[in-house]
């Protein structure tokens, strides 16, 4: 909404400037100067408003919110290998994943995987589960007229989804080995 208003004001001031330059009698230089200065002032106000709006939107605090939670029945870590070759050139990448089964609402089990880089493992005495965490903005801060919704949505989408995996104590095995061979 702010961009639309700013755009309309900028276009209006541009046409006022063109009107002053083209249609006003050259002998009336005061009128031409007044219209030109008004157009310039409107453009300055528009630019300052846009800059203030970006600054305000970038300072809105984002907090974590649990988007959903899935009870899991097992989990295992593993690496996936991906890559491609074309005429002798290419690459191979490996990515660490957590593979798990969860119980659906219908009582069946479904497999899924999530990137290990996006996860945090936490011991629990309760039911093992995975919480999907997303960033959200404070509702009161987003109601301000200076908020640029597309900019805020971009910040939230860049943050992406993170995961908290709650597993029983002792599930992570510790294995230390130093081999000087």
Task: Describe, in plain words, how this protein is organized in 3D.
With 181 residues, this protein is α+β, with helices and mostly antiparallel strands. The protein has helices at residues 2-22, 29-58, 139-142, 149-159, and strands at residues 62-86, 89-103, 109-115, 119-124, 129-137, 162-168. The protein has a six-stranded mixed sheet with strand order 3-2-1-5-6-4. Helix 1 packs antiparallel against helix 2 (29-58). 4% of the residues are buried.
Summary keywords:
181 residues, alpha+beta, 4 helices
Outline:
It is built from four helices and six strands. The protein has helices at residues 2-22, 29-58, 139-142, 149-159; strands spanning 62-86, 89-103, 109-115, 119-124, 129-137, 162-168. α1 runs antiparallel to α2.
């Amino acid at each position: 909404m702010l961009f639309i208003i700013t755009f309309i004001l900028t276009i209006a001031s541009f046409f006022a400037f063109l009107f002053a330059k083209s249609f006003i009698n050259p002998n009336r230089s005061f009128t031409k100067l007044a219209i030109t200065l008004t157009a310039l002032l409107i453009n300055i106000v528009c630019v300052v408003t846009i800059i203030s709006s970006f600054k305000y939107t970038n300072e809105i605090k984002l907090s974590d919110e649990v988007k959903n939670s899935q009870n899991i029945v097992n989990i295992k870590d593993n690496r996936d290998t991906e890559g491609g070759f074309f005429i002798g050139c290419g690459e191979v990448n490996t990515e660490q994943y957590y593979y798990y089964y969860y119980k659906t609402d219908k009582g069946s089990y479904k497999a899924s995987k999530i990137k290990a880089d996006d996860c945090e493992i936490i011991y629990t005495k309760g039911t093992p589960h995975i919480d999907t965490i997303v960033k959200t903005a404070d509702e009161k801060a987003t109601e301000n007229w200076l908020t640029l919704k597309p900019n805020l949505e971009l910040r939230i989408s860049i943050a992406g989804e993170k995961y908290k995996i709650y597993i029983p104590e002792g599930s992570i095995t510790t294995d230390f080995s130093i081999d000087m061979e």
